[in-house]
Each structure stands twice: as structure tokens, then as C-alpha cells.
Amino acid sequence: MGELNIENASSALALRVSPLKQESAVTTVPDTKPKKKICCACPDTKKLRDECIVEHGEDACAKWIDAHRQCLQAEGFNV
Fold this sequence. Notes:
The protein contains four helices and no strands. The chain has helices at residues 6-16, 19-28, 43-56, 62-74.
């Protein structure tokens, strides 16, 4: 009676945690990791940016470069 089985004690402690607390802990953690690889994000703005740079040079394509950068940031990338 004086001995405490560690396996039983840890499972008993796990049972005392309420499901509500576990759920709230999961929902309060922000998901900041991008869901895609950067090469696969924003294909439309990437295509326009790349075509513009090839045809007109980087200096003339600031509008498309900025549009692609904003799209990537909206997807969660730090660029």
C-alpha cells in the first residue's frame, strides 16, 4: 500500500486533464508555417514576374516583383 506504481500514476494523471483544456491549447497556437513550398506558391504572379524580367529586364518589372512578393507574404513566407 505504501508503494506507488509509476505507470498507473501517470495514466491516472492523464485522465484528469479535461478535453476542453487540451482543445483550447491547440487552438491558441498560431499556424505560421507556410502550407506550400515557396516554389509552388503563387504560380500566376511568378509567371508574370518571370516573363516580364526576361522580356524587359528587372528594373522595368518592379510592379510584378512587388505583386509576387505580396502574394508570397500572404501565403506565410518571410520575403
